[in-house]
TrEMBL record, chains A, B:
Transcription regulator PadR N-terminal domain boundaries: 7-80
Pfam families, A to Z: PadR
SUPFAM superfamilies listed in its UniProt record: Winged helix' DNA-binding domain
Top-level taxon of the source organism: Bacteria
UniProt name for this protein: PadR family transcriptional regulator
Length: 176, 176
DNA sequence: CCGCAACTATAAACACGGTGTATACCCTGA
DNA sequence: TCAGGGTATACACCGTGTTTATAGTTGCGG
């Protein structure tokens, strides 16, 4: 996920400072992965450099001075363009599992065992997520659903690949 | 995909030099995305620093001298550990689409239009991939299948989310 | 009332993956 | 002979993200 755009989006509801941004980010997007303070400030610095935001004040808070930032019109355009543009999923068609399978075959390792291991890990993860979903808030449930669907897709690919291993082996050896 | 591990895997079939590595990588994994020469050498440098590979010779070829590298025993262990370890898919449950949807709601933008746009882009991409699959080699077909399964999963999530937009809107406003 | 912990707030150094470009060497053919 | 193209590597640089340092402010226990 593009964290800088998400931050830009949060700032679009009104000028804020880094510390507040971190907390709001975590409240909305941080279910699975909170953002580090360090990343907030380095991202802010880059956005300032690129003219997407600008400092609009510096006020005392409950600690060192807060620097307040606002989205510039260039920033608003940038965000709007991002929102309006569809993503290409997995633009590179490559995955770790694909690479592992091919390399296992190339190195005379047991590719089928590898696929089976991944299958079991996926099933375990699905149970885990399904359990976590029970008590979760709506936004978190949505994120979990996304992961569940994706794991199912992975499982289908694993079955397909596992069934074709002999053919793939031949193809890999050919490339040597 | 983890390119450095893939390179390490390729080197495990015998010592090679950077240039050769680049060509073999592209032949096997490069269907969708070739690796740049620059990345080869910077990755090799890091692997040397980490003791995963070592230089074992320097011979003239059809150009400047070739530096031949071999996998160390630490490198073999590292690779074997990677092959034996299952991946956690989408360890952070976050996606661009999720972020866009939430931000659109937060900014009073049209979230449903956004989802619909993504849906149409996905369908177009599916047609494209299905078409490309027809004439492709086995390894490429496998990679394409992976992408197709994943897009289907995305589509399912889009439908689910689209149906729940009013509830999500309420939740998002709550977080402010 | 002193000192220390916990919270607020930011900055700067650093690591890593990746891209682009420069460099240098060799061979071929017009 | 010399221009062009393939071979081969090195280096500077960029963006994302992590770690660590710094500094003020509040509040609580001894």
């Amino acid at each position: 996920m593009d964290r800088s755009l998400a931050l830009l989006g949060l700032m679009s509801t009104g000028p804020t400072h880094g510390y507040d941004l971190k907390n709001r980010y975590d409240a909305i997007f941080g279910a699975a992965r909170a953002i580090a303070y360090g990343q907030i400030y380095s991202t802010l610095a880059r956005m300032i450099r690129d003219g997407l935001i600008e400092q609009v004040g510096q006020e005392p808070g409950a600690g060192p001075d807060r620097k307040r930032y606002a989205v510039t019109s260039a920033g608003r355009d940038h965000l709007a363009a991002w929102l309006r543009e569809a993503d290409t999923p997995s633009p590179d068609l490559q995955t770790n599992l694909f690479a592992k399978t091919v390399l296992a075959l190339l190195l005379d390792d047991d590719a089928d065992a590898l696929l089976d291991l991944q299958r079991r890990a996926h099933l375990a993860r699905m149970r885990e997520l399904t359990h976590a979903k029970a008590g979760a808030a709506l936004l978190d449930r949505l994120a979990i659903d996304y992961a569940l669907f994706q794991i199912e897709a992975d499982l289908r690919w694993i079955d397909l690949t596992s069934a074709r291993l002999t053919d793939i082996d031949e193809e890999v050896r050919h490339h040597g």
